[in-house]
Design brief:
331 residues, alpha/beta, Rossmann fold, 5-stranded parallel β-sheet, 8 strands
Length: 331
Amino acid sequence: MMTPEWLAHRYDEQDDAVHFVPAPRPLRRSVPFLTDEYLEATDTPTIVKRPDALTGARGDQPAHFIFHSAYCCSTLLARAFDIPGTTHSLSEPQILNDMVGWRHRGGDPARIGMVTSDALRLLGRPFVEGETTIIKPSNVVNGLATALMTIRPDAKAVLLYAPLRLFLGSIARKGMWGRLWVRELLSRQLAEGMVDLGFEPRDYLLHTDLQAAAVGWLAQHRLFGDMARKWPDRVRTLDSETLVARPADAMAGVAALFGVELAADQIASIVSDVFASDAKSGKSFAAGQRAADQSAAETLHADEIEKVSSWAEAVAASAGIDMALPAPLPR
């Protein structure tokens, strides 16, 4: 039996095997994502046949989700909920991306569903008995979000997003790589059948980069709204600016949703520690730095952001997408 220090990192559908890599808690806490780029020994994993890998992996461990639309402080929230003895968080585990890739390659949906359930069992192994697992999938996995919630009917989910204009500013600020990323994301969303905004297939080739970003944002926003309405007792929505402006209130709301008991002084300590630094780089935030970065993007790309925002709002109205998501946190 693989101990929890061994992360279920990849899945090989040809051999029906799970690739494990050593990932003790300090390592997981020190990296932004559980991907090849940040983990050790991914070139020499320990390979275990899936049925054998499941030995000792219980399916009744509590697990919840943070689904997100990118550039919305999701890594920060996941890190805040890695609390030894109480919760254990996983930021963008690669094995869930493997399920998406398998589906895009034409895998059998029933088999993918079964293996995805097994992957969640393996990810949900706590370091300490009684810990609740919080999984923050990559937003590439959003096409499987409803499936993950169905596979784990006791799971709750926070749907975290950045307001449209700030999201567009983040993409513009990233330059060429940000613009390439949104087009890659859109291509995946189209493959998932997530995009239904009234456009013809050729229209997406004619959109500007920020229009492509807005289309992807709208597709995820529709998904989040549908999920919040489908599971009113299991799903809450949260925008990045509320999280940053009111972190203690947001954490209290998320903890209540997940059934995690956190005292006010414990939340205050976590906020003071985690929210004081960049979750990806670990560098301390200078006072007003985030707002200054946002303002710089707005100023440099103001005309494009304004035009695309207005265009996206019109598209949303035509497609019946409510820009205000239901069930917001904190309450």
